[in-house]
Amino acid sequence: MRPVRFVALGDSLTEGVGDPAGAGWRGWAALLAASLAEDSEHVRFTNLAVSGAQTRDVLERQTPAALALRPDLVSVVIGVNDTLRRTFDIHAVAAHLDQVYASFARQGATLLTACLPDPGAMLRLPDALARPLARRQRAVNAVVHALSDRYGAVHLHAADDGWISDRTLWSADRLHPGERGHRQLAVRCHALLAETGRATGQPPSAEPESPAPTRTASLWWLATAGTGWVLRRCTDLLPQLLRLAADELHHRARGTGARLDLRASAAVSAALASLPTAGGGVAEAADALTADAFTGPALDVGGLEAGPVEGGAAGPVAAGEAAGGPAEAVSAVPVVAAEPHRAQGGTAAQTAGAVAGSGAVADGTAADAQRRRTGTNRTGVPGSACAAAGRSAARTTAITG
């Protein structure tokens, strides 16, 4: 029996930060790997994730190494670090992820992706500062959703608000899951993969082996590592973030905050429509995704800076339209299959993206074969609506630093 080859790409979340094991980290991907087969000895797991990585790093450094391993399953969970840089560009994020996903679809690997919560909510920043970051993360999530559909990925919705307030899921830094959070993420990924026949072992245990961080530990982190992180962001992101916050307050005072949502929606649509061989199908899907992603008071979180796009292909934003239902407790939500949905992106030839950087080129045959292997794109469990695509939501924890 040939071993299952699982390769994990990403940043500190996938590296395992927050879940210590010996002198290093373990994390959700390692917990998941042990449950992919009935006998864990039949799994070959390689973790290429690096703390601080952005989408460009995954494309240029991690993807070539992963392709050389010819994985059966590859996880690509990335994007938060992009939103925490003054260089944030949703067009670049979309181009990087499209090339990464296409590379593995062409090789025949099953893609595992996830959308993530915004860091401003996690760090409990003041409202005017948190909103621009939230808009950026929702833009990244809309791109991840559209491309997950395009390449038939198994997708986990991890952008929900419900679990953010559960302190037991987080490490002391509030930027990474603790052991319990990593286990929750592994359990839900396993459930989705089991539905597609890609995980045959017993699911990981949801119960942690170590206690949740104490208040003393949290304060110690803030006084040591946390201070350094804040200083780095002050020289990189903060000047731009203050300008975005001023813009947010200006629009709010004038009652024109919806314009910021329209700008963000149009930028995402333009980014997806400009991808190689995207065609009309992906552009139309982008309109639907971004209209959902930036609609309603719960999602009115201003400040995407992705170029001077003011209108374009984005659909209208219906101010005041609620998105999704009330949040539920993590432990109370069973994992079930999402309702199947229509593949977005037109024909197989249209949906296969041209790959630059890694040297691989996705074709229609490979993309079509990928969809046949994974069936429909699947997400988590019933709950509040998926912010970017109206899908069901899985209550998990995922964030990077």
Major beta-sheet overview: 5 strands, parallel
The CATH topology is what? Answer: Rossmann fold
SSE ordering: EHEEHEHEHHEHHEHHHHHHHH
Instruction: Give the strand tally.
Output: 7
**In which order are the strands of the major sheet placed?**
4-1-5-6-7
Question: What percentage of residues falls in helices of 4 or more residues?
Answer: 40-55%
Q: Name the structural class.
A: alpha/beta
Intertermini distance: 39 Å
How large a portion of the residues is in β-strands, by DSSP E? 5-15%
CATH superfamily: SGNH hydrolase
User: What does the overall shape look like?
Assistant: globular
The CATH class turns out to be Alpha Beta
Essential attributes:
alpha/beta; Rossmann fold; SGNH_hydro; 5-stranded parallel beta sheet; two-stranded antiparallel sheet; 15 helices; GDSL_Rv0518-like; disordered C terminus
Report on the architecture of this protein.
InterPro entries: GDSL_Rv0518-like (IPR053140), SGNH_hydro (IPR013830), SGNH_hydro_sf (IPR036514). The protein has 401 residues and is of the alpha/beta class. It has one domain (4-374): SGNH hydrolase (Rossmann fold), CATH 3.40.50.1110. The protein has 15 helices and 7 strands. It has helices spanning 12-15, 28-33, 55-69, 80-83, 90-107, 119-123, 127-150, 179-195, 215-223, 225-236, 238-254, 258-273, 279-293, 348-351, 364-374; strands at residues 4-10, 20-21, 24-25, 43-47, 73-77, 110-115, 154-157. The strands form 2 sheets. Strands 4-1-5-6-7 form a 5-stranded parallel β-sheet, sandwiched between helices. α5 (90-107) packs parallel to α12, α7 (127-150) runs parallel beside α12 (258-273) and α7 packs antiparallel against α13 (279-293). The protein starts with a strand and ends in a 27-residue tail after the last helix.
